[in-house]
Amino acid sequence: MAVYKEEKTNTWRVIYRYTDWNGERRQTQKRGFKTKREALAWEREQLSKMNADLDMTFESFVSLYAADVRARLKENTWSTKEHIFRTKLLPYFGKLKMRDISAQHVIAWQNEMLKARDARGKPYSPVYLKTVHNQLSAVFNHAVRYYNLRENPCHKAGSMGKSKGREMLFWTKEEYLKFSFVIMDKPLSFYAFEMLYWCGIREGELLALTPADFDFVKGTVTICKSYQRLHGQDLITTPKTEKSNRIVLLPQFLAEEMQDYLQTLRGIGPEDRLFPVSKGYLHREMDRGARGAGVKRIRVHDLRHSAVSLLIDMGFSATAIADRVGHESIDITYHYAHLFPSKQAEMADKLNAERGDW
Which of 17, 129, 267, 307 could hold 200 in an S-S bridge, CB 3.0 to 4.6 Å? Predict the structure, then answer.
C-alpha cells in the first residue's frame, strides 16, 4: 500500500494492491482524505480486513460479514439485517475494535436500546429487541466461527427482549364472513382475502400468484414463490422455507370463485400477478372491512392463524394442517397447542384403568 498527497486538491490518496480469491493481483484506490492521518488510518483498516485481523473495527467487520453471507440470503432478509446494522448497531459499535468489544459494551448498548423510543414515542417491543440482539450476536458468532474471535460477548452479557410476541389473534368463521361481506364491493379485495382465509397462505405468497399457478381441472393452486417490494422495486423470490413449496387443494366454492375472478381480468397473461397491489393495500382493506363489520381489527397475517384455528376446530391433525399451510408440524404443535383439544383427562382415565385395583 502507499499514501500520496494530491497537490491540486490538497487531499490524500491511498493505493493498495491485493490478491483476490482467484489468486490474481489487483489494485484499487481511495481518494479524498483531508489529512495524512485519516489516509493512514483507512490504510491500516484495509490491511486488517485483508488479513482478517480482529484489530479491525466493528464497522469493517460488518462489511466482511456482508461479503461472506449476503449471497446466501434472500434480498428481503438481507434488507432487514442491513437496516438493523445501519440504525441500531453501527452508531454504537461502529468505531470500536472487534477484539476490544466486551460484555460490558453489550450491556451498555442493551440499556440504551431499552431506553430508546420509536418514531411514535413508544419503547421497542420485546420481540423487536430480541431480533436486534440476535443480529448483533450473529455477527460475533461469525467472528468466532471463522475469524478466531475468542468468544461472543453477547453470550456473557445475556439476551434482551423475548422471542414470543403478543397474544395470537384470530377471527372465528362468523367474524370472517361478516368482514368478507363488507369488502365484497371490491372484487380484488374480496377474492384476495378469500384465498388468505380459506387456504391459510402468506401475504407474499398471495401477491405472487399468477393464472399459471391454478389448475382448475384438479382444483389446486401451486405455491412456489413470494412477492416482496424492496427499495421501490417489485421482487418475486422463492417462498419463506422449503416446506412452503406446496400444492394446495381448493374447496370447490373457492375454485369457482377464482375462475369467476379470472374471467374479469381481461388481457392478463399466464405469468401476470393476479393481485397487483401492495401489502399496504391489504392492511388498509383490513381496516375498512373490520370497521364496517364491527369485528376486532387483526393483522393480515392473523388470517393465517385464523385458517389454522378453523382447521384445528374441524379436527385435523397438526401434520395435515402443516402440509396445507407450509409449516413444520412441530411449529403447528408449538404455536397452536392451546387450541388443540386437551387429552389430559383422557390420559388420566386410561392410566387409572391400567392400574386397576392394585
Answer: 307
Cβ(229)–Cβ(288) below 8 Å: no
Q: What is the dihedral of CA 299, 305, 183, 238, to 10 degrees?
A: 80
Cross-strand pairs, 221: 214, 248
Q: How far apart (Å, rounded) are the C-alpha atoms in residues 138 and 155?
A: 11
CB 125 within 8 A of CB 162: no
For residue 358, name the pLDDT band (cuts at 50, 70, 90). Answer: low
Identify how many contiguous H helices and E strands the chain contains and give both numbers: 16, 8
- Contact criterion met (CB below 8 Å) for 176 and 288: no
Q: Provide the β-strand partners of residue 18.
A: 26
Look at residues 125, 64, 132 and name the one whose alpha carbon lies nearest to residue 98.
64
CA 209 – CA 61 distance, rounded (Å): 39
